[in-house]
Amino acid sequence: MRIACLGGGPAGLYFAISMKRRDPSHEIVVIERNRPDDTFGWGVVLSDETLDNLAANDAESAARIREHFAYWDDIAVIHDGMRTVSTGHGFCGIGRHRLLLLLQERARELGVELRFETDIPEECIDELRREFDLVLAADGLNSRTRQRYAEHFEPDIEVRACKFVWLGTHQTFDDAFTFIFEKTEHGWVWAHAYQFDADTATFIVECSEPTWRAFGFGEMSKEESIATCERIFARHLGGHALMSNAHHIRGSAWINFPRVLCARWSFDNVVLMGDAAATAHFSIGSGTKLALESAIALADYLHSEPDMASAFTRYEEERRLEVLRLQSAARNSTEWFEQVERYLDLDPVQFNYSLLTRSQRISHENLRLRDPAWLASAERWFQAQAGNEGSARAPMFAPYRLRDMQLVNRVVVSPMAQYKAVHGSPTDWHFVHYAERAKGGAGLVYTEMTCVSPEGHITPGCPGLYTTEHEAAWKRLCDFVHAETPAKLCAQIGHSGPKGSTQLGWQEMDAPLAEGNWPILAASAVPWSARNQVPKAMDRADMDRVRDQFVAAARMAERAGFDMLEVHAAHGYLLSSFITPLTNRRDDEYGGSLENRMRYPLEVIRAVRAAWPAHKPLSVRISANDWVGDEGVTPDEAVEIARLLQAAEVDIVDVSAGQTSTRARPVYGRMFQTPFSDRIRNETGMATMAVGNIYQADHVNSILMAGRADLVCLARPHLADPYWTLHAAAGIQDRECDWPEPYRAGRDQLQRLAERGEGWV
């Protein structure tokens, strides 16, 4: 093949090398607009895994690269006057300039033609397509090729919020990858610093845009900008200067990171690679790794597949998944740094943990493998904060107190609808269901949404709290749980609103009944869907009646013996229909602004708080994101909602999301709703519960240790395993969980199996 590689960075050079290694007869030219020794970054970070991949692909260049690596194992975080170090992270770095020279040398040895200082205007790319069999577009972040064929590649470029500048220094930071956070007169500024050769380190300086503007960095020359950064970080630089190699840029060289995605990576005989195809934020240091491993994959497929189109398809199928994984981790890391000022008041121990786990690629147990001593000290710190001085148990087994309710651990059995009630009365099914989960070790067990009136039912199978029969059935459960287990019980009360009079969950979710529908209420006459009935827009008499029904249900819950109460104001049900502008179309004092939309829900919540005993905690469940952008409730608004709930003496907010509209487009993933809990907790100081695709002890411990929530709710895992908490304890070899006495022989066997790395099946 005759191949043109546009761009002489790591992607273009290494693809050329990889193709020549597979077939020396390929005619390959690498075209680069800059000089051979120009480079506009400093260090490159790679992993041992990537080095092994390079060695398998081309042992000669891998050996030369390895000779120039600087290795380090530690991460140091300097924050609030304290330097916290953890180990076991296994990084290696090389200067970008050195890497390019080594790859250029190897490419020449293999017969690749290198053309430097050759600028290819966008309009000339069509000629290259005709001249060459294949055009590799590795022409970087601002790819002209991607722009030329944008209608085919469909790029999506998102400019991130923080400003950063890429500098270097002869202060080598040779003992650790170092993060430094400095509070200045204009706000926080932080640095990412790591060694990449014997006497030089990368030093990336980053800050929020308001801080950048307050300093006036945008109006400074490069020299003035560097001098300001030297002043900010003077006590960490040991008298060394900061340096820039962005000599081609006028001004201070600060930029915003652009996240690049493309719908397709190939068009005809043109294929994208490296930053031209996708970018990964520098805070996880994976851009060069992606480029090198993509080069290997494409070279493989061009020699294994029957034609070039098939090779492009295999390349994109394989690499896109890996790129998306890294971009997901990079997004998490990017957002953490963009919002870092909300975490800077955390204790240095928790702040360090939050930073280390920011991308979700490093978890609690992964940290234990990397640095067991540091993690054990962090766990002791967490337990001490919970009043459990001297304990070294995992965070999920720390006690927690809300008003006079003391929980034995932080695991919560989420509300999960059973649809097995008869005329609103919980049955033996409910007794067994909840009793089993209370015996299973969780600190707090929720009832499913329990309706405050017959008209407030979601389905005919939903339980209620509006008759003495209901109260008696719930009291039977509360008495058993309190007598036989250490678990506490929370009654979640609510009203279905526009989602009422629908089928059982295992029939057709949220669809109207085939017959026997009852009238429903909502903030406005907006149906849940075109198929659902139009609810009556509540008038003042309706509001008074429903408020009083919530109060009556709260009093019944107290008499039944519940330890905690939650008002359901999420998921499109009645109170949620007031909160979200998607369904609240009122033009009176209950519609429009957030203050108005919250007016009636707060009226109900305050009335419930007044009726609920002062020594018992009150929670409210909210949807923190309607998943429809600015048309609905956004995470920004959720913070304000939480502040209003705080003012209404709500003790903890149960932070869910979505289910408020059929238009919602959620972004799923592990722990996908936890960021909303994290934000509310760390911006308002209010206690929170995290929910949403949390299913491992590792998830629970990571969320708690990082300060992203105070309690962690698991739903489906508790449907699959009522004894999830006890089993999770055995899995992490925690022997302090209180098992029911008749089950202790099972506990002993499970613990022995866990020690041997075995399970039940």
Automatic annotation (TrEMBL):
Record-annotated FAD-binding domain positions: 5-320
InterPro entries, sorted: Aldolase_TIM, FAD-bd, FAD/NAD-bd_sf, OxRdtase_FMN_N, YqjM-like
Domain NADH:flavin oxidoreductase/NADH oxidase N-terminal: 396-734
NCBIfam families reported for this sequence: PRK08255.1 (NF006101)
Protein name: Bifunctional salicylyl-CoA 5-hydroxylase/oxidoreductase
Native source species: Billgrantia zhangzhouensis
Lineage: Bacteria, Pseudomonadati, Pseudomonadota, Gammaproteobacteria, Oceanospirillales
